[in-house]
Amino acid sequence: MKRALLRVGYILKPQGIRGELKIQPLTDDVRRFQGLKEVYLETAHDCVPKKLTVNRIEEQAVYAYLEGCHTREAAEQLRDAYLCVDREHATKLPEGSWFVCDLEGMQVCVDGVEVGRLTEVIATGGVDVYQIQRLDGSKFYFPALKRVLRDVNVEENRMDLDGQALSEVAVDED
């Protein structure tokens, strides 16, 4: 199921005393924060648009100010919130790539027969690994290889796998 907003950052903590935030990037390319001026602040209570001023970008963190946040105390209130963008301002993905949030929860079929749901995408630094929860509750894992993925249809929330290729790479959870 497609989400209207995509999470691009997670607020870890205040940085300093003037409201600066330390943000964990939730994107494969941390440079996507360069030039990002507006985001949606997603808290447990609501999701509101805010202006963002990025101060510096490091490999594992982004440091920025968020509109209306000028003190350490205000920044502390934003701990554990998410920064989101709408799909119009999302990074354009190459063919054969999908946003993780669009994959999780997807119906998974093997050779046309439903076997379960994709419950987690595990980033390994190389090929992602997909966790599938079978209809009986057990789980298995497989690398997201083109030869295994017969079809991924985000609009229909369905993934079809090649049974033969899957049998060569899938691992059951112990």
Provide key terms for this protein.
single chain, mainly beta, seven-stranded mixed beta sheet, six-stranded antiparallel β-barrel, 13 strands, 44% strand, elongated
Characterise this structure.
The chain is mainly β and 174 residues long. The protein contains three helices and 13 strands; from the N terminus they run βββββαβαββββββαβ. It has helices spanning 72-76, 100-103, 163-169, and strands at residues 5-14, 21-25, 38-42, 47-57, 62-66, 82-86, 107-110, 113-122, 129-134, 139-143, 149-153, 158-161, 171-172. A seven-stranded mixed β-sheet has the order 11-12-7-8-9-10-13. The protein is elongated and about 55 Å long. The model has no long low-confidence stretch (mean pLDDT 92).
Topology:
Layout: E1 5-14, E2 21-25, E3 38-42, E4 47-57, E5 62-66, H1 72-76, E6 82-86, H2 100-103, E7 107-110, E8 113-122, E9 129-134, E10 139-143, E11 149-153, E12 158-161, H3 163-169, E13 171-172
Parallel strand pairs: 7-12
Antiparallel strand pairs: 1-2, 1-6, 2-5, 3-4, 3-6, 4-5, 7-8, 8-9, 9-10, 10-13, 11-12
Please summarize what this structure is.
9% of the residues lie in helices and 44% in strands. With 174 residues, the protein is mainly beta.
